[in-house]
């Protein structure tokens, strides 16, 4: 998102963070089994299930392309209730393809092979899931958007029995990379990753953006979510065309959010907005955020508290907003003047 009138490129900061978050997959942690302890290398391993070992080999799920899956996550991270779900309702994963790793070249995943470690899983996502998922979505995919491509592998015991099923698919994740509940098919949704109105964002030195309470230190306070699809229904707008529309719209949104133009003036904060460049737009991202920031020396100032609380309710780099000089009353706030007296009729006595 780009802050207009400053050299700060907010969009670059946020997009870098989103790309990083989007690269986090479900891996083995979203396969309907209990997560066990980590080994010395820090790799997650599945806890064994109680299924009898003499059962015939069967895939851990029958889910196929176009179907959706969900599961429950306990407060301690344990996963249960791994099952199919309606894609129209709440789910955590939409299957784009079903792969059989036993047919993989060189016999890498033969009967005695261990499950792939997280590094190999990431490679499999690139090798097997990326193209399949993009084809499944018919090209409607924004890699910097709300969805990420990920694989799901069998639980450890199913793998030991010979199940080499791998599901490729798409999911929405939280800022920690954990799959969250979502509704609707991904190809039918707006793919932009936006922050709810009234929430705040902080960025770190690595350009990672995190959503926080506005009572905590932050850099951006979100004032609105703008849908550009009805504004540009028949074309991909240039960034300049989006800017022209959003400059007015986001200023109006900031005034509405703070309760008037005078409150925005007194806050000393600056309006910012995001844009959707052509690759994101073509990938299905149509929504952007409007927000408030304070830019100082080509950096974000640290805000604390919501600007909706007024000058006494938030700080900028630890201090209240600078007192603003009084202005002449706005035209909209001036009392209407009395109309001038009517002109005398022609020929009338003075």
TrEMBL record:
<feature type="compositionally biased region" description="Basic and acidic residues">
    <location>
        <begin position="324"/>
        <end position="336"/>
    </location>
</feature>
<keyword id="KW-0732">Signal</keyword>
<protein>
    <recommendedName>
        <fullName>Septum formation-related domain-containing protein</fullName>
    </recommendedName>
</protein>
<dbReference type="InterPro" id="IPR026004">
    <property type="entry name" value="Septum_form"/>
</dbReference>
<feature type="domain" description="Septum formation-related">
    <location>
        <begin position="65"/>
        <end position="290"/>
    </location>
</feature>
<feature type="region of interest" description="Disordered">
    <location>
        <begin position="307"/>
        <end position="350"/>
    </location>
</feature>
<feature type="signal peptide">
    <location>
        <begin position="1"/>
        <end position="28"/>
    </location>
</feature>
<dbReference type="Pfam" id="PF13845">
    <property type="entry name" value="Septum_form"/>
</dbReference>
